[in-house]
From TrEMBL:
Matching SUPFAM superfamilies: Six-hairpin glycosidases
Keywords: Carbohydrate metabolism, Glycosidase, Hydrolase
Any one Gene Ontology BP term: sucrose catabolic process
Family assignment from sequence similarity: Belongs to the glycosyl hydrolase 100 family.
Function: Invertase that cleaves sucrose into glucose and fructose.
Catalysed reactions listed for this entry: Hydrolysis of terminal non-reducing beta-D-fructofuranoside residues in beta-D-fructofuranosides
Protein name stated in the entry: Alkaline/neutral invertase
EC class name: hydrolase
EC number: 3.2.1.26
GO molecular function, one term: endo-alpha-N-acetylgalactosaminidase activity
Length: 571
């Protein structure tokens, strides 16, 4: 397997000379034997191949100027220049941390719990179950969820154990090819499963996989985020191991193209964002996130950027790459223009005129100023800002959603100024967003009439519980990654120390309830795997910030805005 030929200029920019991958011959009929054949890892430490500019991939566009330099997160650039060495292990497998200090006692306990959650298929680990729940009502917590496995996968990659991640990626890719029907309607070919389960037949002594594409989910909604997480995880695997042989397989190339074909197809959309149903992501119940939720848009942006460096520019891939480049430019412009909120923008919306008609309209979505919620005026600090939850005609959802904002930082959808503003907001509103247990999935909670109308009186999403303002420990890894990328690890350290006072003692709950996250969630499962894995990933990244490279993308200067619209960010 040959590495791509690159020309590294004096200022650190990379220009690709030939295509990213050399495709190996592969027998499509013998897909399963991939799981049985160990792959050698490329242990050589080398500069990342995936920080290429969109401009360098655009047809007919000139290369970036030599003066282009890295501006973002200068305090940790030394860490980000190098790939994580797969031979290094953390926590459970070493008596001491990389910094020479004794690891927290929780780390060994967490590793043991994570390993107990492993799911095997025909003798090989293929994922981790959602929760080691011993209750009678397991529901679907005994399945392997794509989104839930991501922090587990990152933990194993950071610990130098990539095979389980490779197995997972290949198995879910195989499931993508299944026929997918809900009632009599067939889903798109590129849809990835929300979860899968291994069924054991003791009579025949056989094992089979059963996938759920939304037909068994509450609300019967297909998971829009699963395909994005799959692409992001494929890039993380490639980045951490240096092994491009998996991503170059024709099956993986086709899988990525199928996922993206669902998102890049032309239709009636007038916006570059993705129109989604309620319950299509981590918030998988009715919570008023239908339309254009920030979580999906941020994951979409990140998946596009990851696919851009993983896809081969052959006959089939070149057209998709061109579509990605165009969409990224439009999507970054749209999100930074209309989803961003800081004090100045809030004041501008407060003074909006309505019923404007023409291309010169300022209030392009005809948002009624009287629809601004009272809480947002007190919530918005003088310094700080965030991407709001949703923007669509005559509707702006001003709620804070943690996952979408953290992914916006990690994918560089947020500009450096916006990323700083998001971290300023978290520090300024620590009690509201972190409280006694990190981290609020959204803020504020829906209450009273709003709760009845928006959630349909959902008894699980009552105020300050579950998705409705609950505190989710899994989000700790995303916060930590965002903190490291913005050069503010002290925020992550403070949050981790808070979590360490409760998580193990409380048996790793799925979520916490209350305005401060003081109470174990009323329906929270114990021994929740992604709570365990999220803690481990946060600890390992804080211990060795170079791990950040597998889940973070540097800013692309070609997407940088050119006009100034607010004091908190450059547009």
């Amino acid at each position: 397997m040959s590495a791509p030929n690159v020309d590294v200029s004096q200022n650190g920019n990379i220009r690709t000379i030939d295509s990213l991958f050399t495709v190996a011959e592969f027998d499509e009929s013998d897909f399963s034997r991939l799981l049985d054949r160990p792959r050698p890892l490329n242990m050589e430490r080398k500069r990342s191949f995936d920080e290429r500019s969109l401009n360098e991939l655009s047809i007919g566009m000139s290369p970036p100027p030599p003066s282009r330099t890295a501006e973002y997160s200068s305090r940790i650039n030394d860490h980000l220049e190098y790939m994580f060495s797969p031979g290094r292990r953390s926590g459970y497998n070493t008596p001491r941390s990389l910094m020479g200090f004794e690891p927290h006692p929780m780390v060994a306990e967490a590793w043991e719990a994570l390993r107990r959650s492993l799911v095997h298929f025909r003798g090989q680990p293929v994922g981790t179950i959602a929760a080691l729940d011993n209750s009678d009502e397991k529901l679907n917590y005994d399945q392997v969820f794509v989104r839930d496995f991501v922090p587990s996968a990152l933990a194993f990659l950071m610990n130098g154990e990539p095979e389980i991640v490779r197995n997972f990626l290949l198995k879910t890719l195989r499931l993508q090819s299944w026929e997918k029907k809900i009632d009599r309607f067939q889903l798109g070919e590129g849809v990835m499963p929300a979860s899968f389960k291994v069924l054991h037949d003791p009579v025949r002594n056989s094992e089979t996989l059963i996938a759920d594409f939304g037909e068994s989910a509450i609300g019967r909604v297909a998971p829009v985020d699963s395909g994005f997480w799959w692409i992001i995880l494929l890039r993380a695997y490639t980045k951490s191991t240096g092994d491009t042989s998996l991503a170059e397989l024709p099956e993986c190339q086709k899988g990525m193209r199928l996922i993206l074909s669902l998102c890049l197809s032309e239709g009636f959309d007038t916006f570059p964002t993705l129109l989604c149903a309620d319950g299509c992501c981590m918030i998988d119940r009715r919570m008023g996130v239908y339309g254009y939720p920030i979580e999906i848009q941020a994951l979409f942006f990140m998946a596009l950027r990851c696919a851009l460096v993983l896809l081969k520019q052959d006959v089939e891939g070149k057209e998709v790459v061109e579509q990605i480049v165009k969409r990224l430019h439009a999507l970054s412009y749209h999100m930074r223009s209309y989803f961003w909120l800081d004090l100045k923008q809030l004041n501008d919306i407060y003074r909006y005129k309505t019923e404007e008609y023409s291309h010169t309209a300022v209030n392009k979505f005809n948002v009624i100023p009287d629809s601004l919620p009272d809480w947002v005026f007190d919530f918005m600090p003088v310094r700080g800002g965030y991407f709001i939850g949703n923007v669509s005609p005559a509707r702006m959802d001003f709620r804070w959603f943690c996952l979408g904002n953290c992914i916006a930082i990690l994918s560089s959808l947020a500009t450096p100024e916006q990323s700083t503003a998001i971290m300023d907001l978290i520090e300024s509103r620590w009690e509201e967003l972190v409280g006694e247990m990190p981290l609020k999935v959204c803020y504020p909670a829906l209450e009273s009439h709003d709760w009845r109308i928006v959630t349909g009186s959902d008894p699980k999403n009552t105020r300050w519980s579950y998705h409705n303002g609950g505190s989710w420990p899994v989000l700790l890894w995303l916060l930590t990654a965002a903190c490291i990328k913005t050069g503010r690890p002290q925020i992550a350290r403070r949050a981790i120390e808070l979590a360490e006072t409760r998580l193990l003692k409380d048996s790793w709950p799925e979520y916490y309830d209350g305005t401060l996250g003081r109470f174990i969630g009323k329906q929270a499962r114990k021994s929740q795997t992604w709570s365990i894995a999220g803690y481990l990933v946060a600890k390992m990244m804080l211990e060795d910030p170079s791990h950040l490279g597998m889940i973070s993308l540097e800013e692309d200067k070609q997407l940088k805005p050119v006009l100034r619209r607010s004091n908190s960010w450059t547009f």
